[in-house]
Amino acid sequence: MPASKTKGHAAVCPISNERVELLVTEIIGRVADKWTMLILEELEQHGTLRFTEVRKCVPGISQKMLTQTLRQMERDGIVLRTVHPVVPPHVDYELTELGGCLGEAFCGVWQWAEKNFARIEKSRAAFDKRAEKAATKTAATR
Amino acid sequence: MPASKTKGHAAVCPISNERVELLVTEIIGRVADKWTMLILEELEQHGTLRFTEVRKCVPGISQKMLTQTLRQMERDGIVLRTVHPVVPPHVDYELTELGGCLGEAFCGVWQWAEKNFARIEKSRAAFDKRAEKAATKTAATR
DNA sequence: CGGGATCCTTAAGGATACTG
DNA sequence: CAGTATCCTTAAGGATCCCG
């Protein structure tokens, strides 16, 4: 169990630690988002993509969410957005180096999900069965 | 750049691959959640915690979200919930082995956030400055 | 084509009150 | 103590239209 998480930072950096932790937490909250992760994954796999291409790669995402998420990622320095001043417009998206690092960091989570999805499904089924039993029992009691 | 993400699964497993991908995506969506990650982190760091203790460790979480998230995690087999039949009630939460693995997988993301939060802040500031400039320019034009 | 602006609907999430 | 149940508010997110 690797111990160097947020707490490990304390000894190193003297600047207000609650602030750092809040910041890190906020970043985690921003980055640990469904669409962000999916877009990240696609850009990592395909390299550079245009707006419409990203949209095709991420099924189910609305144009609004795509724009919004890409903007956030651009703002955070995860994605590089290049506008080619031609008509009709041509906009390219690609990961920055920072974004690439994040992609690699998330890789472990993807692998975890891939490796364990069957276990998770089983656990869910078992949980639901127990819950159902409990429910019928409660119904019988009253 | 490790290439074995969802796509890498294709060659190994013959069962409907879209289904697997959907499942994995769904799991990612579930697990890549702010509260889930924070609770995971606390349980990994403290071992076993009671309901109220978790609540204290995760500032800002409402009791509703805490219950809800813990239930989801229990259902997914990430967290083990132990009820001691005493009065007043005593309920313990701890990570399962599966949960521990997930914690380790997420560790990379935490480290990424810790390492790069300054860069991200700078990127955001720069982005906002550019946006502001663009806005005043637009305002001047009309 | 790549969005911005607007409207509208659903759902996430907080506050409060009650219970075994 | 560790929840469940209810209400209520905010905001996420989809659909639509339009524009450079």
From TrEMBL, chains A, B:
Keyword terms: DNA-binding, Transcription, Transcription regulation
InterPro entries, per database record: HTH_HxlR, WH-like_DNA-bd_sf, WH_DNA-bd_sf
Highest taxon in the source lineage: Bacteria
Gene3D superfamilies linked: Winged helix-like DNA-binding domain superfamily/Winged helix DNA-binding domain
Residue ranges constituting the HTH hxlR-type domain according to the UniProt record: 13-121
Protein's recorded name: Winged helix-turn-helix transcriptional regulator
The species this protein was found in: Granulicella cerasi
